[in-house]
Every structure is written in C-alpha cells, then in structure tokens.
Amino acid sequence: MQYVHTCYRVLDLDRSIDFYANKLGLELVRKSPVGPDATNAFFAVPGDPEPRLELTLNHDRTEPYPLGEGYSHIAFVVDDLDALAQKLEDAGGVDFESKPHAMGGSGTRLFFVRDPDGYRIEFIERS
After folding, report:
1. pLDDT tens-digit profile of 12-54?
2. Within this chain, do residues 35 and 88 fall inside the same structural domain, yes or no?
3. Is residue 123 within 8 Å of residue 82, measured between CB atoms?
4. Strand-pair category, 74-77 with 120-125
5. CATH code at position 37
6. Active site residue ranges
7. Which tens digit of pLDDT belongs to each residue from 92-107?
8. Coil, helix or strand at residue 127
9. CA–CA separation, 88 vs 35, rounded Å?
10. Quick check: is 103 in a domain?
11. Count of domains observed in the chain
C-alpha cells in the first residue's frame, strides 16, 4: 500500500492555486479538466516527485463546502518555522490560527493557518 494524496473541494480554484503555490510554495504539477463539470489541480512539495494534494473545483458550486466535524488538518515539516511564518505574514491574506509556539517540552514548535476555504494547515519544526 502507498499513500497517494489528499483531496479538498474548493470554491475558487484560482484563489486556492495562488495560496498553495505562491504563498505556501508548493509546486503546481498539473491542472486538468475532469469531464465537463470539474477541474483538478495537483500540488507537490518541492523535491517530491509525487503530487500529494489535489484540489477539485466543481464548476456548478456557488457556496463554500462545510468542512465537517471529523476533519482536522494536513501538516508539513519545515526547517525554519519563523522564516515561513514571516514569509506568510509578508505575503498578506493568510489567516493565522496560531503563531509559532513550542509544543510541550519536546523541542517541537508549530503553527496553524487556514487556506481560502477554511482548511487547516499545520507547520512543524522539530529540534
């Protein structure tokens, strides 16, 4: 078994592409129609040959999707948490749920942001 990707349904694909590619720094691997009713965009972490995030735009959707009670977040490990937080702050338009902070006594630090559709993203720096 191999993990392939996570898929989110989004309301505005261009806005989401801007967020994930230009603000977070993920690579847009491909954008393609799925029949006449939807478009998919696939993203990879730089250096990862496989896209791990799929965003789906259903063309007839006009209202945001409810996130559900069971969903929590996706997470990325980064080398420099403070530099990333500053980059996102400088980019503007990023909804910070928390700022970089320590997690217990483990030396791990983290923070959360929300994407344009409200999905939570965690960034982790391990000592």
Report:
1. 999 999 999 999 999 999 999 998 999 999 999 999 989 999 9
2. no
3. no
4. parallel
5. 3.10.180.10
6. 122
7. 999 999 999 998 777 8
8. coil
9. 34
10. yes
11. 2
